[in-house]
Each structure stands twice: as C-alpha cells, then as structure tokens.
Amino acid sequence: MQKTSMLIIGSGPAGYTAAVYGARAMLNPILAQGIQPGGQLTITTEVENWPGIQEIQGPDLMINLEDHAKKAGAKIVPDVINKLDLSKYPFVAHGDNDNKYEAESVVLATGAQANWLGLDSEQKYKGFGVSACATCDGFFFRGQVVTVIGGGNTAVEEALFLTNFATKVILIHRRESFRAEKILQERIFKNPKIEVKWNSIVKEIIGTDDPLGVEGIIIEDIKTKKVLSLPCKGVFVAIGHSPSNELVKDQLDTHQGGYILTQNNSTQTSIPGVFAAGDITDFKYRQAVTAAGMGCMAALEAERFISETKK
User: Fold this and answer.
1) Burial class of residue 147 (count of CB atoms within 10 Å of its CB; 0-12, 13-18, 19+)
2) What positions carry a catalytic annotation?
3) What contacts 148, CB < 8 A, 6 or more positions away?
4) Residue 101 has what pLDDT?
5) What is the pLDDT of residue 286?
6) Are residues 153 and 288 in the same domain?
7) What CATH number is attached to the domain comprising 174?
8) Which of the listed residues 216, 237, 258 is the one where a domain comes to its end?
9) Structural domains of the chain, count
10) Residue 179 is part of which domain span?
11) Which of 70, 84, 184, 278 could pair with 14 as two cysteines, CB 3.0-4.6 Å apart?
12) Judging by DSSP bridges, how do beta strands 56-57 and 75-77 pair with one another?
C-alpha cells in the first residue's frame, strides 16, 4: 500500500499540472498515468494555442509536462486505476498487479473518450478503415479519398491534417454551419482538397469482407432525404467525446451526460477531498489550457483541504 497526500488519476494537462502544484506544495503527489499516458494530446499534431509556444507537437507538449511534474517532485507511475473507493477516508485506489494507493485527497483527471456513430457497419470496419484518430491512422490512406464525420474543432483539424496524405477529404456535417473556431473554418474553405457535405448523416459504411476494408459510405441529406453513396477508403469519426467517469459515476454527482459535477468556481466534487479537473468535468471549453488551469485549482484546493482536515 502506497500512501500519499494527493493521488492524481490521469495524465493529461490537468493531471500533470496538478502534479506540479501538488509537488510544490510538498504533498508528495502520486500520478497514475492510465491506459493512455499523456491523454488526447498524444494523438494531436500541431498545438498552436498553448500560451508562450506558437507551435508544438501534441506528444512533445505532453513529454514536457511530464518532465516538469517529475522535476517538481511528483511520482509518476505507469499504472491503471481499476477501482476507487470513496466511501471511507482516507480514500483507497486499486491499480494493476494488486497495487493499492491510500490518499488523503484525490484529483480526477481521467479526461474523455471519443464518441462513435453507433452503426453496426462502423463496428465491423473499426480498425479496417474506420478510425477516431487521424494522426494515428492518416498515413495509411496516402493517395486515397477519405471522409471525416463531424463539425467541431476536432473534425476540422482532422480534415486539415488528412490533406497531407489523402487526395481528397470529404467532411460530413449534420448541420449547415461548423462549430469549429473561425480560423480553422477559414483554412477548410481555402483548401482545395476538402469538400463539405452539409446537413448530412452517415447511414452505413460499406466495404469488403475478405479482406475487411472500407469502400465507401452512404449518407442522407436530413432536409431533402436524398441518399448518396460516396466512394472512400477511410472514415474518420470526430463527433465529440464522453467523460471517462467509470471509476466514480456511481459515487459522485454528475450532470450534462456524465460529466462530474463540481461546486461553483471550484473543482470540489460532491465528496469532500475529491476534486475533478479537465475534460472529465469540463463540458464547455474542453481546451488543454483550461484543463491545465483546473489542474492547478484542484491541487491548491487539495492542499487547503488537507491542511484544514489536520487542524
């Protein structure tokens, strides 16, 4: 059993920032990285909105944050927390290989995971032409036609990235305008490789069985009900994320579809001593810099909670 004043679960910007501040507060924090060390930014290419750095690759930014946390004094462990007991104090977390952690405070920074369309054909071709990560799989579609589903920042960024490999990128959005940042929209409209299909939804993904592979998609215009078949070799789903709340969804108050509910202007959850930071609680902004800010808040609030508990 490892004991700590602050256990951080998750290793995105929120988690690593909490580790830096926790270490500086002499809380000897332990950070469990989870199944995807570095979080979503490890599957992102150019990051152009991190203050003070005009452009950096997502994986490089996360390496920098991890190094910073280590040098500040945080203990980083490559462990996956499978169970978190918040019913008694101190809290107890169970990791792989029978690892156990006893913590006076917990910072939840487990982030969010990609949403899928929910089609049987999507499941069938997942990994065989269907992906939720352009930076992971875009290279495999060099010289091919691909489609991207979605209309937010993620979809637009993935469409732009895929133009580095594909001959054509078809961006399919169920509305008649994007939700993405204006500067990203401008890049989309100026790129001759990108074609936009407005007011459209994917009805089915079609392909071969032996070997498994995508050959195209069938879309429907939600206004005219016209059905259209589009040949393509790759389908990239970018329709948002859901909070990774499996550890605590039955223990903490949630809202907005599963996001951890925190007090106003705070990262404090419904259980004293448990704090939430980043995409597991932020359904509005979902930015790396806001996640980092919340990680800072969580560490400062954890320090205050521990000092008051010991009085």
Assistant:
1) buried
2) 133, 136-137
3) 134, 155, 158, 159, 162, 169, 170, 171, 172, 236, 238
4) 98
5) 83
6) no
7) 3.50.50.60
8) 237
9) 2
10) 120-237
11) 278
12) unpaired
User: How big is the CA angle at 169 (ends 164 and 172), to the nearest 5 degrees?
Assistant: 140
Length of the chain: 311
Do 85 and 134 sit in the same domain of this protein?
no
Q: How far apart are CA 126 and CA 130, in angstroms?
A: 5
Q: Is the bond into 29 cis (omega within 30 degrees of 0)?
A: no
d(CA 259, CA 243): 6
What was the pLDDT predicted at 78? 96
- Average pLDDT, consecutive stretches of 10 residues, N- to C-terminus, the chain (311 residues): 97 97 97 92 82 93 97 98 97 96 98 92 94 86 97 93 97 95 95 97 96 97 96 95 94 95 97 98 90 98 94 71
108 and 174 inside one domain: no
Q: What is the pLDDT of residue 280?
A: 97
Alpha-carbon gap, residue 190 to 196, rounded angstroms: 12
The two tokens of residue 46 are: 């150019």
Among the three residues 194, 210, 237, which one is the final residue of a domain in this structure?
237
Report the candidate in 87, 16, 11, 3 with the shortest Cα–Cα distance to residue 299: 16
Q: Are 188 and 173 in contact (CB under 8 A)?
A: no
DSSP string, the chain: -EEES-EEE--SHHHHHHHHHHHHTT---EEE--SSTTGGGGG--EE--BTTBS-EEHHHHHHHHHHHHHHHTPEEE---EEEEE-SSSSEEEEEGGG-EEEES-EEE---EEE-----HHHHHHBTTTEES-HHHHGGGGTTSEEEEE--SHHHHHHHHHHTTT-SEEEEE-SSSS--S-HHHHHHHHH-TTEEEETTEEEEEEEEEETTEEEEEEEEEETTT--EEEEE-SEEEE-S-EEE--TTTTTTS-EETTTEEP--TTS-B-SSTTEEE-GGGT-SS---HHHHHHHHHHHHHHHHHHHHHHT-
Report residue 132 CA to chain centroid gap: 11
Clarify whether residues 225 and 291 are in a common domain.
no
Q: Which residues contact 244 (CB under 8 A, 6 or more apart)?
A: 10, 110, 111, 112, 113, 280
